[in-house]
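Case 355 in the screening queue. Each case pairs one protein sequence with one candidate compound; here the compound is coproporphyrinogen I. For every case the pipeline is the same: read the inputs, emit a complex structure as tokens, and attach any notable structural observations.

Predict complex for case 355.
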Amino acid sequence: MNTVMSSTAPEKPMLTVLSGKKPKRPPFWFMRQAGRYLSEYREMRARAGSFLDLVYAPEMAAEVTLQPVKRFGTDGAILFSDILIVPHALGQTLDFKHGEGPVLDPITKTSDLSRLSLDQLHKIAGPVYETVRQVKADMPPHVALIGFSGGLWTVASYMVAGRGGDDQRAAKRWAYGDPEGFGQLLALLEDATVAYLLEQVKAGADVLQIFDSWAGNLPEPMFTDLVIAPTSRLVTRVKEAAPHIPIIGFPRGAGPLLGRYVAETGVDAVSLDTGMCLTYADETLPRNFPTQGNLDPQMVVAGGPMMEREMARILTSFHSRPHIFNLGHGFVPETPVAHVEALVGRLHDWQDTPA
Ligand code: 1CP
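Case 355 output:
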């Protein structure tokens, strides 16, 4: 038997949706559902010392993964890790500075690639795979365990800039000025990401999501070369080894390139950002193609009737296709837990609303 098979025995509503069917109630989970808006997360983070210490401590990381599942009854548990673990496991220095986000030692030219190597990948990322195993062992059977990586373009843009934020300038200059050299970085990242995702599947991930958070704001030919083509290669290679694993793509900011992304990458579902027009998405995507996402995280900060109206608008818009309720981007630390509770209450109720 293929070692990359995972057991899908009990019904998991998220897997039902991802197989193109509609369960009675749309399942839900939230991007950044584990994080600083939760007091139990802040406590665990303080206990660990630093963000990276928390990611590399499987017992604590597994507990953090399950915190929102226990608190809100989400249908998905997203592995507690980060998209920048791959560059770290390739040998790039990484630090999460307080209030500043990630800081990396930038890779800006072909000769810098000699600082990176696949040799230690599984050794460094090993604790993340162990987290997956522990979550899987402790998780309610109807919940789907979501493994993830960043999209290759997005991760590369952090590696080149050496920091977070919406500044893809350095990566664009390298990619446009020296496509061959930048292509070598993408190729190395592709090998690392395929191996990293397949280890998560072996450890028990039920679903994978590819976060291409900076896919927007590229000229169309560059979107083709830097987002569609690398994602398509990633999906093809993961599916060669693990054909059963559903893959959700998150091409944030893709706008009118959404249809091409879906048609050409081979993803099984697409997560829609906050700015996406839902009528457009519904008209553009193939019938029955599963969607996820779109609620503005700031709606949950505000709470109240507008948040509930938005929730209903999203669910109604995707009434006729398999859909996973989610945000258009991650929860921000200021999100009041009471607003999440109100939202979750409505989501649990939604099953009683006649179709
Ligand atoms: O405790 C802390 O201070 C660290 C905050 C934090 C957390 C909770 C970071 C730093 N990463 C994470 C966890 C994380 N990151 C998860 C698992 C938890 C969950 O979702 O519940 C996931 C899936 C990610 C993915 C991630 N990391 C993305 C893609 C999604 C997105 O938000 O666009 C990106 C871009 C990152 C990079 C990153 N890691 C952390 C920060 C602050 C950032 C963003 C930096 C920036 O560009 O501003």
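Case 355 observations:
- Residues 157 and 171 are 5 Å apart (CA to CA).
- The chain has a mean pLDDT of 95.
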